[in-house]
Amino acid sequence: MPEKGLLRGQVGTVVELLAPSVAEVEFSDDQGRTYAMAALRTEELIRLHHRPCERVA
After folding, report:
1. Which tens digit of pLDDT belongs to each residue from 22-31?
2. Does the residue 50 lie in any domain?
3. Kind and range of the H or E run holding 54
4. Strand-pair category, 34-41 with 13-19
5. Is 47 exposed, middle or buried, given 0-12, 13-18 or 19+ CB atoms closer than 10 A?
6. Residue 13 within any structural domain of the chain
7. β-bridge partners, 25
């Protein structure tokens, strides 16, 4: 989404669910300043994990 200043792989935070398959995502810099907001379809999102996933037996 270059028109919004976003490139593939940038990390954002879902801040609101707008519809069952649409989320408002905020993109912020290292100082917490928002540089972009975008309504994205859930299939455009990739879930990131910041710790090991628990194993399911």
Report:
1. 999 999 999 9
2. no
3. none
4. unpaired
5. exposed
6. yes
7. 14, 38
